């Protein structure tokens, strides 16, 4: 195998640790990161979902401090903010709490950037919200990659944000209602905009094999990024858990769902598991999986792969599957 491990741009937590928790501690960050690295994820962005002002300020500063003062500086280049500038509509906001969603604001993003010590590396926002273009331009000017997601846009909104500097789509195919308009929906304009790379959750549950293949065919392998979007339940045994105050069930096969709403409650897969699921689909080669799980996410962040290729390998490839070392 030509890569030392995987790059994951969306890690909500792992092994019971939630990066959006108001009680997140330094020990928990180190514990989750160590477990994730041992599972084959070499480089990743801890993700804070739509949260209160207090959690944003506390956790952004805490994550930066822990990374700067430990070995994690070689594994974590920054934080992914998934929200708060997303759609408040049911179905589009997903599990994000409506009361914490905000209209896009340069001033608020500046506050978060200051609180993080310029540690925000990726921002997920909705294209159709008022003020989105201004916030997008500001974010890009500060070196923050803007990705579009949790949104209900028209094609004009998608195209406008791409012109403003947005360069990616967050978990394309997810954060939309079960039933959508056959023509006017968030999928088609996102798929056909060539300026936008597409992040996909390749766990076999978030999108079907057919949709996964469609996204890869339309965007092309060079413009697709696999992400785990792993939840704090990732790495835990099957059972019942409480996520964001919602009872969720993790099944033996890795499917994490909420029985009350009959919807997914996040992902339990690591990048290693996502990579092996992709290989099982048979429509991509091992070399293409390496592109989508290592080279492409680094290119989105503007990081040279040479900085990581010298690392001690975390995974090997044999018998047509990736195996942790």
What can you see in these coordinates?
This protein is of the alpha/beta class and 325 residues long. The protein has one domain (6-311): Metal-dependent hydrolases (TIM Barrel, Alpha-Beta Barrel). The protein has ten helices and 16 strands. Helix 7 (209-219) links the parallel strand 9 and strand 10 (224-227). The radius of gyration is 18 Å and the shape is globular.
The level-1 CATH class: Alpha Beta
Instruction: Report the CATH topology name.
Output: TIM Barrel
- Distance, first to last CA: 12 Å
Number of domains: 1
Could you tell me the number of beta strands?
A: 16
Return the structural class: alpha/beta
What does the average pLDDT come to?
Answer: 95
Strand fraction: 15-25%
Order of helices and strands: EEEHEHEHEHEHEHEHEEEEEHHHEE
Oligomer: single chain
State the main characteristics:
10 helices; single chain; alpha/beta; TIM Barrel; four-stranded antiparallel sheet; 325 residues; globular; eight-stranded parallel sheet
Quick structural overview:
With 325 residues, the chain is of the alpha/beta class. Helix content is 33%, strand content 21%. Helix 8 packs across helix 9 (286-301).
């Amino acid at each position: 195998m030509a890569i030392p491990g995987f790059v994951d741009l969306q890690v909500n937590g792992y092994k019971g640790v939630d990066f959006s928790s108001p009680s997140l501690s330094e020990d928990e960050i180190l514990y989750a990161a160590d477990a994730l690295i041992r599972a084959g994820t070499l480089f990743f962005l801890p993700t804070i979902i739509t949260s209160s002002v207090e959690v944003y300020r506390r956790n952004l500063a805490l994550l930066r401090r822990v990374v700067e003062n430990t070995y994690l500086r070689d594994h974590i280049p920054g934080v992914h903010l998934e929200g708060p500038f997303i759609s408040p509509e049911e179905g589009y906001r997903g599990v994000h709490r409506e009361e914490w969603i905000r209209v896009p604001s340069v001033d608020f993003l500046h506050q978060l950037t200051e609180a993080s010590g310029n540690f925000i590396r990726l921002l997920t926002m909705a294209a159709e919200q008022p003020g989105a273009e201004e916030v997008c331009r500001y974010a890009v000017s500060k070196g923050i990659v803007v990705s579009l997601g949790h949104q209900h846009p028209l094609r004009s909104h998608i195209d406008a944000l791409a012109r403003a500097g947005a360069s990616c789509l967050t978990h394309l195919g997810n954060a939309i209602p079960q039933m959508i308009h056959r023509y006017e929906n968030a999928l088609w304009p996102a798929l056909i905009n060539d300026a936008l790379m597409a992040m996909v959750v390749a766990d076999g549950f978030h999108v079907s094999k057919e949709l996964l293949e469609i996204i890869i065919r339309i965007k092309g392998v060079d413009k697709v990024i696999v992400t785990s979007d792993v939840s704090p339940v990732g790495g835990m045994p099957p059972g019942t858990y409480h996520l964001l105050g919602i009872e969720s069930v993790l099944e033996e096969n890795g499917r994490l769902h909420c029985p009350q709403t009959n919807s997914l409650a996040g992902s339990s897969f690591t990048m290693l598991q996502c990579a092996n699921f992709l290989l099982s689909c048979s429509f991509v080669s091992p070399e293409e999986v390496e592109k989508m799980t290592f080279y492409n996410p680094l290119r989105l962040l503007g990081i040279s792969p040479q900085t990581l290729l010298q690392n001690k390998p975390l995974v090997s490839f044999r018998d047509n599957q990736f195996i942790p070392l």
